[in-house]
Predict the structure of Gustatory receptor.
Amino acid sequence: MFLPSNTADKLLFLIKLFIIIRIPTCGKNIHVIVHSAWQTFPAMRRSKCDDLFLKCLFYVLKFLGVAPMAIDNSPAPEKDSPRYVRFVASKLGVFYNGIIACLTVYPSYMTVRYLTSSEYTKNIELEKVIDEAQSTFAMITSTFIIVNICVRQKRAAILANQLSSIHSVIMDLAIDVGDDVRRNTIISYIKKIVFVNLVTTIVWVASTPPEEYQYLSYFIVMSFYNIIIHAMLLQYSLVLKLLQQLYRSVNADLSSLLKKSSSISDDNNCHLMLKRLKHLRQIHATLCQISQDVSNFYSLPMLFCVTHVFLTQIIYCYYVVMTLIVWNINEKPILVILNCVTLVTLLAVSMTILVRDAGVTAVESKSTGEIVSGSIDDCQDHEIERQLNVFSNYLLHKDVHFSVFNLFPLNESLLISIVGSITTYLVILLEFEVDSTKK
């Protein structure tokens, strides 16, 4: 029999051993029981680490101004109510976001002062206009995100509670896959998204040029705006990834349940299966409604964010290409060009993750219809077949998709449109610059 290395863990182990020995084992092997009981400890520690990670992530987003609500630590109103993390509106969060919104005024003044300084006016007029427009729109976008999330804080808390509640319900419905496995899968995906975004953000911040005060102050101001916008994109990506995994869990439960339909012989099992099938249909309907609410909630912020990403990609790609083709490389510090490249990469990664998660979530929601339709022909029980037909008819009228006010969809096709538009505008700007240089 193995013993844990940590002293505190040894003490817990001995206490558990003492309790188990005092309880009658009905002939079972005590070694097996103790070994099985001790195996739950790593899972408990891992669960606590995951909870700590999620709390830290929440407070980071709260610090950046995109999650002003607070975690409700009060006990559940009813003993039998499901346990899940609850969120409530926070006046302190509104006050904090108000401070952040006010702080955007002074950086805006610094940006305008730099763009109108004698050092910067040496640049060509087109470059000056482009920088002024880009910095102004970045300020407007970041300020709008902070103010919008404050105004709609109660709605954000309701959506967060709905997601937390449905996640708790689905995790309790595991048939063949354990709750820990599903939960760990969701956490691992969230960690991957956060890690990729964190690495690209660190590289981008590290490439900020520190040589000249004017360059440094300008890039610090722009970084302040871009980090807020990036945090909103990250938050939406995490919500979409959670929805995708919830749809996948429902589909896994549904597939496992329908595989057993052909072997059901007695009425009791048939009744239990019908009850479970109806429950899964209700969960899927709730997920579809939450998905639509999430899409509507993020539509307005995403309109500003996607527009900002589009403009920034054009402008920074223009600087990089012009430096390599037309301008002398010595006219701009290497770190300035590197900062442009890393910011383009950061925004490209953020948009790729966002539209990929949105597209995959929509596809996963449609997979439910394929599972139900494929099981109707193999069903042997008429009542179950009738319920499957009802489920199938319901799914025909459900179209889960994520868009920005139906102006453009959030899926992989948006990336192609953005790349094509950036290329077109970049060619126009380059031709204009080359013609101006010749004159």
